[in-house]
């Protein structure tokens, strides 16, 4: 009896395998493109056919268009932690409030470059599925990599001219399908000066003087409509009411108008830029009032009058973190919002009940904090988008 049951189970499993492998390629591609990252990595090991499908350039583009924004964290110290990136992907967000988050640890050799001096590595940003890292100190190198596939290219940062306050930003031009790296710096007391590197050309192009230095102008996700965005500040640290952007298609700086403050209102402090539901947003504390912070959304990109205050949230000091401010990361479909608390902890805010809840995503005990960027996991190979470059694995 037991043998018969065992035989029936084996036959059933074989029939299911046969059914899956005999599905039309287009249908298999459609099904696989909706799976989360860990499941897709497992599917690559099922059979050669599925591996070929997932490795196909058309599948990579389809999957990227559906891949949800995830959280990529780089702990600053200690030295051993600085060698790794941690990826957190939201797999489920139910109306009940349950949120399933999958963690992946990305390390050297398998996912990332093997740094010579690991403590001098900076997570710059991510754009359209690729990640930019900066190794500085004894060497001055940029890495553009796909940590999912373990591929990367190495870019030498131009030397000379007594350059200081160097800063970088990875971007993507949808029309030309090219990745680019923007650099701003000061040289011999002059600046800021801008240069751009187009992946695949092997060379930097000077853009002359820049309206802003992007040094220390970080944000979780400020890439929208082919441009990256920064907010400008005055000498006292307050925002000037100006958003500068760089268009990676035209290689030009521009300006996006910020909202007009109501009469009697002071400027917003601790201003952070982001993207919520495909709209540019700003978050900050108005009138030097640290009891509340506001999130404004630009409903119609480029139109000053379309700025709307979408959320006004009461500030709450939490345990664990040294720094005491919030800014939004991801707005979930179940009425929750993931936020960064002092770049040391990720919290979940219930928009309806107006309550914060701590998550398990936080800096390590012996770390000073972390860099955090938005990352969209993808299977786009650098062999397809970085032709002409030396690609390492």
UniProtKB/TrEMBL annotation:
F-box domain location: 17-62
Concerning Gene3D superfamilies, the annotation shows: 1.20.1280.50
PROSITE patterns xref list: FBOX (PS50181)
Under Pfam families, the record lists: F-box, FBA_1
- Coiled-coil intervals: none
Superkingdom is Eukaryota
Q: Enumerate the PANTHER family for this protein.
A: BNACNNG10540D PROTEIN, F-BOX PROTEIN CPR30-LIKE
Q: What is this protein called?
A: F-box domain-containing protein
